Amino acid sequence: MLRRLLFLTVLILTFTLLFSGCFWQKDGEGDISDSETSGLETLQSGGMFITEDDITKAKEVVRLYIDGLENGNYDDSYNLLSLSSQKTHSLSDFKEDIKLGMPQLDLDNMNVKANDDGTILVSVNFIEDPSTAGYNLIFENENWCIVYQGGSPAMPTAIMTSDN
Fold first, then answer.
1. What are the start-end ranges of the E strands in the chain?
2. How far apart are CA 138 and CA 140, in angstroms?
3. CATH of the domain spanning 2-157, picked from 3.40.50, 3.90.930, 3.10.450, 2.70.220
4. Please, what sign has the CA dihedral across residues 43, 65, 134, 84?
């Protein structure tokens, strides 16, 4: 009898949380925009929960990264890269690669998507173009870090491309 009561309690709590919006699972379709993150407590990704605080921190890392690139603070931006990205690209190569150019990005309108592997994708709109730039972030050493394996520092890709 106690087991049945416990089961029913858990079942009722689960449905209450699901329908009240406190527990929110993204199915991989679409992004979470700035306006959608208010009240969002958790986002499930790859078996882990990404909190609203994680989303806020990931956006701030992208903002700091882009600000550093735009203002010539390349060392600061480089320090926001993941360890594997820093192993792939030396600081001197990073500084040389940024000479490829920097698009104008709208940092006031970022969209966030939790990837199935536990990483976060932050999409930033171009100011002069309807396209977006995507920044993949991985959580390591208690911080969200930019993944830059290919592309350019301004538009990094999370996978190695043949031009690297």
1. 32-33, 42-45, 48-51, 105-114, 120-126, 132-140, 143-146, 150-152, 155-157
2. 6
3. 3.10.450
4. negative
Rg (CA), the chain: 19
- 49-90, pLDDT tens digit by residue? 788 899 999 999 999 999 999 999 999 999 999 999 999 999
Comparing 7 with 70, which gets the higher pLDDT? Answer: 70
What Cα–Cα distance (Å) separates residue 60 from each residue in 21, 43, 44, 151? 25, 18, 20, 21
Q: Quote the pLDDT of residue 89.
A: 94
Domain boundaries, the chain: 2-157
User: Residues 122, 33, 36, CA angle at the centre, nearest 5°?
Assistant: 135
What tokens appear for 106 in the block? 């709208």
Cα distances (Å, whole numbers) of residue 126 to 51, 70, 109, 132, 155: 26, 14, 10, 6, 11
Here the tokens at position 22 are 């406190």
Q: Which two tokens stand for residue 135?
A: 């920044």
pTM score? 0.69
